[in-house]
Amino acid sequence: MQARVEVGILQMLNSKADPGNKHHIVRMCDFFVHRLHLCLVFELLAVNLYELIKRNQFRGLSIGLLRVFITQARTWQHEPAVGDNCCVAMLAKQMIENAGTRAGW
Q1: pTM, two decimal places
Q2: Three-state secondary structure along the chain?
Q3: 86 or 25: which carries more pLDDT confidence?
Q4: What are the sequence ranges of the domains in the chain?
C-alpha cells in the first residue's frame, strides 16, 4: 500500500534524517486508519492543502505549482546534509507519481 510506504518515509525523515528539525522537513505527528483509509496527521503550517485547493475553487493545482513542489523535492534529494537521500528520493518519486496520476498523465 502506497500510503504505508509514505508513512515509513516520513518516519525515517523525521527521526533519522532530521531529528533536530534543522532542515524544516514537515513533521508527521501521527497516523491512523479511519473507515479503511490511512490518515496522516501533520504539524499545522501556514496554509493546509485543503485551504489551498479551496482558494483555487476546488479545481486542483496547476501544473506550474506542481512543478514548484517537484522542483523542491528534487532539490531536497541533492541536499547532502539531509542524511538518508534514499528516503528523500523515494518521497520525491511518490510525489511525482501522485501528481501524474491526478493530472491524468
Answers
A1: 0.46
A2: CHHHHHHHHHHHHHHHHCCCCCCCCCCEEEEEEECCEEEEEECCCCCCHHHHHHHCCCCCCCHHHHHHHHHHHHHHHCCHHHCCHHHHHHHHHHHHHHHHHHHCC
A3: 25
A4: 2-103
